[in-house]
């Protein structure tokens, strides 16, 4: 289960750490207790909109930027959860293809080679 408070806390912590600031500095600027801010960052407490606004002001980050980053994290978490659930249910049987090794193609580097095949028949693994 994806918990929004955990994602929000992770994003807040990253924002603070990117600035090289301590919990103490941000909690003082936001006028929030250090312990409570720590619990918010660890996803143990739900932050009210007023508290988020104070933390964003202390971090000099727009709330819309914070929420956009949380939204992006949520999208990735949902995709990962969905992929994990579909793998557990049943993995589709796909035809196996032999390995292909590309060393050179008429002046094109191997990173730029495109191999066309039915999407359901190919797993691409970068080595």
General description of the model:
With 127 residues, this protein is mostly helical. The protein contains 5 helices and no strands. It has helices at 4-18, 23-30, 34-41, 49-59, 63-89. It is elongated. The two termini are 32 Å apart. Mean pLDDT is 81; it is low at 119-124.
Helix and strand sequence: HHHHH
**Which residues sit in consecutive blocks of at least 5 with pLDDT less than 50?**
119-124
Question: How is the biggest beta sheet arranged?
Answer: none
What share of residues are in beta strands? under 5%
The gross shape turns out to be: elongated
Structural class: mainly alpha
Number of DSSP E strands = 0
Helix percentage: 40-55%
Work out the radius of gyration: 22 Å
Summed up, the helix count is 5
Question: Averaging pLDDT over every residue, what do you get?
Answer: 81
> Whole-Å distance between the termini?
32 Å
What oligomerization state is this entry in?
single chain
Task: Write a concise keyword list for the protein shown above.
54% helix; mainly alpha; single chain; 5 helices; 127 residues
């Amino acid at each position: 289960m994806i918990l929004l408070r955990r994602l929000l806390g992770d994003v807040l912590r990253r924002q603070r750490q990117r600035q090289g600031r301590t919990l103490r500095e941000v909690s003082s600027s936001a006028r929030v207790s250090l312990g409570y801010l720590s619990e918010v960052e660890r996803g143990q407490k739900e932050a009210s909109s007023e508290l988020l606004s104070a933390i964003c002001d202390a971090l000099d980050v727009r709330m819309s930027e914070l929420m956009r980053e949380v939204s992006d994290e949520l999208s990735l978490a949902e995709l990962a959860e969905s992929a994990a659930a579909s793998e557990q249910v049943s993995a589709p049987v796909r035809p196996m293809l032999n390995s292909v090794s590309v060393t050179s193609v008429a002046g094109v580097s191997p990173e730029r080679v495109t191999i066309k095949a039915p999407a359901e028949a190919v797993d691409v693994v970068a080595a």
